Amino acid sequence: MKKYAIGIDLGGTKILTALVDRQTGEVIEHVKKKTKKEKGAQNIIRKIIESINELLVTCNLKQEDISSIGIGAAGQTDRENCTLIAAPNLDCYNLNFQKELCPHFNIPVFLGNDVEIAAIGEMKFGAAKGCDDFVCIFVGTGVGSAIVKEGKIITGATGTAGEIGHVIVDLNGRQCACGAHGCLEAYASRSAIEKRIEGALKKGRKSCILDYLEPGKAITSSMIHKSIEREDELVTQCVTEAAEYLSGGIASIINFINPKLIVLGGGLINAVDFFYQKTIKKARAKSLPVPAEKIEFKKAALGDFSGVIGAAFLEDRS
Q1: Between the CA of residue 136 and those of 39, 142, 223, 302, what are the distances in Å?
Q2: How far apart are CA 135 and CA 123, in angstroms?
Q3: By Cβ atoms counted within 10 A, which residue in 14, 29, 139, 154 is the most buried?
Q4: Domain region containing 201
């Protein structure tokens, strides 16, 4: 077995590419680039190619040393054909990574959903190690999840199982990036919180988040964290509302799937402990009593590297 694989976590705001030791799960080296989805799918492909080449040069490796390139993308995936079918948060549709990357690298390419790869990483080396029955939920630009039963990812009939972000929480609610109305993602993601804060600021609400916000720049999880530390009323209100909605989605999962463990990760969870604590407390309160008592919650243990580590093991998928 070749020792190394390339793992790529393709998200709405960043592309994280890493060289992973498949024997230990260690990230040897990594490259992070901004996604800049507005520049199109080919720009994303170009950045992935550049990142892989950077890693090979930095680590003094040849293509023959790499067993696979694994990619986790935030969207609906056709795993068998290595195609990203629809990714609203990336503005990518019917993008075939095998066709795009194979002319540049003589290395097998594998594709999965972004939270699917995070779940694999956490199951092998992180918070879910030793547990074969859990749900992994990541909150960032969007809200995604993966379901693990008997140690395997449940993908569903069309490969789209686990799309908790598109569970309807308000029949006539806000429009989601997917085009539907009332999706959980439109209420509980960092993007949703950002829109709520920006809307309130335009209406004249005061907030210390303006101390961190630069013109034309997005509100980040770090800015939200700093504002909550300063007990900012507006930001605290918006984050509490998001936790209310996310906890309802999680309670539905607890009642419906009844997993042993829920692993929560992603930029917002990692940066804003107030959001994490509010969410799990409310989720327990909203769940049926018996599963609420038994369910265990953990933060993802691998941080930003959950996805790239998991992606390095997509080749093992059966």
Answers
A1: 30, 14, 25, 13
A2: 10
A3: 139
A4: 129-300
Least Cα distance to 2 among 69, 102, 94, 89 occurs for: 69
Quick one: 66 and 208 in the same domain?
A: no
Q: Do 173 and 287 reside in the same domain of the chain?
A: yes
- Is the same domain home to 163 and 94? no
pLDDT of 63-110, one tens digit each? 999 999 999 998 888 999 999 998 887 888 999 999 999 999 999 999
* Helix residue ranges per DSSP H, the chain: 41-58, 97-101, 114-125, 185-188, 190-202, 221-229, 233-257, 267-271, 273-286, 289-294, 306-311
Residues 6+ apart with CB under 8 A from 183: 165, 166, 167, 168, 169, 173, 176
**Contact in structure between 185 and 192 (CB atoms under 8 Å):** yes
The tens digit of pLDDT for each residue in 12-57 reads 788 999 999 999 999 999 999 988 877 788 989 999 999 999 999 9
With beta carbons less than 8 A apart as the criterion, state whether 122 and 138 touch: no
Both tokens of 184, joined, read 């959980």
57 phi, psi to nearest 5 deg: -70, -50
What are the φ and ψ backbone dihedral angles of 113, each rounded to 5 degrees? -75, 150
CATH number at residue 20: 3.30.420.40
| Tokens, residue 291 | 């599963």
Which residues on neighbouring strands pair with residue 133, listed in sequence order?
149
Cα gap 191→195, rounded to integer Å: 6
**At how many degrees (to 10) do helices 221-229 and 233-257 cross?**
110
